[in-house]
Structures are given as structure tokens and as C-alpha cells.
Design brief:
This protein is of the alpha+beta class and 191 residues long. It has helices at 6-14, 16-24, 35-50, 56-59, 106-123, 148-167; strands spanning 61-71, 76-85, 90-96, 129-134, 140-145.
């Protein structure tokens, strides 16, 4: 079985057919069209260098580990920062090359949920929240609550991905047709 990343989870939750086209039929995406994704990857390394002393006191950080690559049997991911908080819980922190617009996108939350699963397993400490830094909004820091059901969603999604890949299963497309407009697979997807 392949190793699953937060990007696989996010793509699958966006539309399960991503999983089918990319990992069953092995048709690659054309990511160069997605400027923000590429720019986001570049900005991560810059921000890790620039923001060594951000709002640690405000969010009660005892210790931070930068640029952590975490993995378990099926899931892997690179967390910008893993924080040990004053209450001895832990939290992921992720930098986004984005503006904060009074809303946290589901994709950002799902990424934090994946990191929460990995952090709990690696460090054996509970994770109840995570943080996002919006680099295009003067490094605005936003807290995201992480509940048990959020972590369960990640486990269920991994099972769905495995079912599609292992059984060569062609899933239903997303019910949100607006998502199809910018999909890299729209020309080969049977509605």
C-alpha cells in the first residue's frame, strides 16, 4: 500500500475521483497550473527562517520543533512546527501563503487533522488544537479546534483511499459541481 499524505486526503475529500485518476490509472496532475500550491511550498522554508520568535507567549508554547517529518504505517507528512503547549498537550502549526479572509478553508483544517493524528502517535500526547499562520496577512495566527471526530475523519478517509486503490474501484464524483470547473481531470471524467 502506498504511503498517504495530507495532500492525498485533501484531494480525496475534494473529490474521490482524484484518487482513482491519479493512483489507480496513474494519470499525473498538471500542478504547474496551481501557482499558489507551488508558491506555498517555497514560502514555507522562508518563513521557517524568518519567524523564529513569533507569538509563542500568546499561545502558551513551552517548546517547538521545526520542520518535523512524521509518519506511521499509512500516513506521512511534514509539519512546519510541532508545539508543546503549557498544558502538556501538543499542536501542529502550519504556514500558508494566503490571506486570511475571516474563514478557514476545509483543506487547511484537514491538513491540521492529519498532523494531529501523526503527532499523537509519535509523541504520545493529546492534540486538541492547531494553528495556521497566514503569511499574506502580516503573519496572522489563527487557532483551529481539533476534535476526536476530526481525527476519525482522517482514518475513514484513509480506508476509502485504500479501497479505491486496492479494488480498482471507480468512485462517484463529488456532488459539488463547481469543483469540477478547475479540476485537472475534468476532460476525462465521466459525469
Amino acid at each position: 500500500m502506498m504511503s498517504i499524505t495530507p495532500s492525498h486526503i485533501i484531494e480525496h475529500l475534494f473529490c474521490p475521483r482524484y484518487t482513482y485518476f491519479e493512483y489507480v490509472l496513474t494519470i499525473p496532475q498538471y500542478e504547474e497550473k496551481f501557482y499558489k500550491a507551488i508558491k506555498g511550498r517555497e514560502v514555507h522554508s522562508e518563513k521557517l527562517e524568518r519567524n523564529k520568535d513569533y507569538l509563542r507567549k500568546k499561545i502558551g508554547v513551552k517548546e517547538k520543533l521545526q520542520d518535523q517529518y512524521l509518519t506511521n504505517d499509512v500516513l506521512r507528512g511534514k509539519v512546519d512546527e510541532v508545539l508543546l503547549l503549557n498544558d502538556d498537550t501538543m499542536a501542529p502549526l502550519d504556514y500558508k501563503f494566503a490571506e486570511y479572509k475571516d474563514k478557514i478553508y476545509n483543506t487547511y483544517q484537514q491538513q491540521l487533522f492529519c498532523y494531529a493524528v501523526l503527532i499523537e502517535e509519535k509523541f504520545k500526547r493529546p492534540v486538541h488544537k492547531g494553528f495556521i499562520v497566514y503569511t499574506r496577512s502580516k503573519n496572522k495566527l489563527v487557532e483551529v479546534q481539533i476534535k476526536s471526530e476530526d481525527k476519525l475523519l482522517i482514518s475513514e478517509t484513509i480506508e476509502q483511499i485504500e479501497r479505491i486503490i486496492n479494488n480498482n474501484y471507480y468512485p462517484k464524483a463529488t456532488k459539488f459541481k463547481r469543483r469540477c470547473l478547475n479540476c485537472t481531470y475534468r476532460n476525462i471524467c465521466i459525469k
